[in-house]
Amino acid sequence: MDEEAKKRTQETAKKLWTGGIKIDPPYLMWKEFDKDLANDLSMFITGNLYSRTVLTLPERQMAACAMLAALGASDELKLHVNAALNVGCDPHKLAEVFFQLAPYGGMPLVNKALEVYRDVLKGRGEWEEFKNSKK
Prior knowledge:
The chain is mostly helical. It has a single domain, classed as Up-down Bundle (AhpD-like). It is built from 9 helices and no strands. The protein has helices at residues 3-17, 26-33, 35-49, 57-71, 74-86, 91-99, 102-105, 107-123, 127-132. Helix 1 (3-17) packs across helix 3 and helix 4 packs antiparallel against helix 5. The radius of gyration is 15 Å and the shape is globular. The mean pLDDT is 94.
C-alpha cells in the first residue's frame, strides 16, 4: 500500500467518520469478508475519490446525501448525513437537498430522507437546535 495514499485515506476518513453519532462504517463489514479488498475499496473511495479537491468535502457530502436519498438507501444515507455534518455542511441546506427530491423521486423519498436526517440530528443532540434555528 502506497504510504502517501494510506495517509490520505486515513486523514479523509477521520474528517468524515469521526464524531457525531456512533455508526459502524461499511468498511468494517467488508473486512469480515475480504480484508485486502476492503483496504483497496477504502483506498479508492476515501483516499482517492473523497480526497480530490475539485469539490470540497461538504460539497461532496451534499452530493452523496442527495444521491443516497434518491436511491432510498437509508442506512448509507445515515452514515453520510452524519459525515456531512462532521465536515461542516449547513444543516438547513442539507434539509433543502432532501426537499429537492420531491419533483424527481416523489414525496416518499423526501419523507424517508427527512426521517433519517431527523434521527441523525437527534442522535447527535442537535435536533432541538435545528428546529429552533429555522431559516
